[in-house]
Specification:
The chain is an alpha+beta fold and 178 residues long. The strands form two sheets. Strands 3-5-4 form a three-stranded antiparallel beta sheet. Strands 1-2 form a two-stranded antiparallel ribbon. Helix 3 (82-89) crosses helix 6 (151-169). The longest helix has 23 residues, at 2-24. The chain has helices spanning 2-24, 28-36, 82-89, 99-109, 133-146, 151-169, 172-177; strands spanning 42-45, 51-54, 61-68, 112-117, 122-129. Helix content is 51%, strand content 17%. It starts with a helix and ends with a helix. It has a domain at 62-177: Metalloenzyme, LuxS/M16 peptidase-like (Cytochrome Bc1 Complex, Chain A, domain 1, 2-Layer Sandwich), CATH 3.30.830.10. Keywords: Hydrolase, Metal-binding, Metalloprotease, Protease, Zinc.
Length: 178
Amino acid sequence: MALRVLGVTQNLRTYMRGVEIIKRYKSALTVKKTLLNIPATQVTQLDNGLRVASEDSGASTATVGLWIDAGSRSENDRNNGVAHFLEHMAFKGTDKRSQTDLELEVENMGAHLNAYTSREQTVFYAKCLSKDVPKAVEILADIIQNSQLGESEIARERSVILREMQEVESNLQEVVFD
């Protein structure tokens, strides 16, 4: 009985949070004005075929990234896991920057560099001050084009990825949705 009451209480809290969000908007007009103030996304294509999506929110921070249509869905028995592996290896250094130099440069900008792999894509991105977008783009380009794949880093990341795979395999929800 106590568990059932606890479950109802949790559901009620979730519902009430939703009601509070709706109350913030006093009318449909307010919702419409809010939606109209979302910056438009402009998509352009470079001569090399690369598509660039951009929004100018006027904010002092920005997120820039590279979304690559290469996730686990594109893999087969021979190259299974390669997108995830390359995502892990990307931040181990480049021809121009060691791993430490890369970390310090990003940290000194006050930026955040990250990546993830899904079934559909592999993503590399940086969150930074708007004024630092050109530098963040240069760093991302260096990582994508010039990553070093050292033997010791490969061995270390291999064990990290194998451990992550074990965690995913033990999570029923991850297995079902994969």
